[in-house]
Amino acid sequence: MKRINWLTSSVLMLSLCAFTNSFSQTTKKTDTKKESTKKETVKPEPKKSEPKKADKSKFLENRKFSVQFYEIKPTGRGKAVESTVTTKTGKIESQLMKDKLELDDANFSVLLDSTYMEDETEMHLVKLEAYVENKKDETKWEATILNYDIDGTVVQKKGNVDKKKFEFSG
After folding, report:
1. Which of 21, 64, 66, 86 has the most CB within a 10 Å radius?
2. What is the residue-wise DSSP string for 106-124?
3. Would you state the pLDDT for residue 161?
């Protein structure tokens, strides 16, 4: 009796393996057919001198983050200064950056917009960057937003030299 059960289970395992192999081969064939019909579109990055058009992301629309700004100096990290970072109509702004750097609103580009599950919780991750240029200098914003938290940097350059650098989180 045990010999029959072993033999039956062996036959079942072999048939299952054969089914799995044939299924995976069919899936591969259909995947290659799908891939050949897909067209990849790659957006060329605009030159720094060209103004970027604002990317629309409903997740970022009319969001206001309470943050702590830290000025990064050669001697170390400065004291925390409370402020806000606001995203609206494809622009990022901060009142503190307007005061300290005389920085206008900046059109941002979304580099990554992803939603994933972590411990049964939906997580929304967005990475963005923005450039502002004027006659004197150029300023770059970089930010990562995870659900309702934001972290990032603001770097003001004159030529290729960093003039001022700030980190923020909140």
Report:
1. 86
2. EEEEEEEEEEEEETTEEEE
3. 85
